[in-house]
Predict the 3D structure of the following.
Amino acid sequence: MPAERIDGDKATLELLPNGILHLEWDRDCTITTEDAGFAMAAVNALVGAEGHPMLVDMETTRTVTRGARAVFAIPCSASRIALLGSSPVDRMLANFFLGVNSPPCPTKFFTSRHLAVAWLQSAADGQAHPASA
């Protein structure tokens, strides 16, 4: 399924063949309360109640408002979330979110897409085959 623009026109969302949701925010965008709500609604609409791991590409995000952080703390259809960034600012934004808000599911920050996907897939594998854990 190809990436589709979500309401608010600041991000794309797609369900990858490996079962991972990929939410990618636009370069230099400020994520507002409304944007966060659109993103979470799009995630829930795409996969329903079926939990999927989600890769959030925030490498070029400018900032995330307090209201948006509160929305991201509300449970959605993501079973695990890997936040992907590349700069000290990305790390600061992620650490601030993780320190101030209680994420609704296991959430980690990564600077490596490969490690982020591996973490998401290992969790999915563990959930799909509990006897192998």
Observations:
- The helical segments are 33-47, 66-72, 88-100, 113-128.
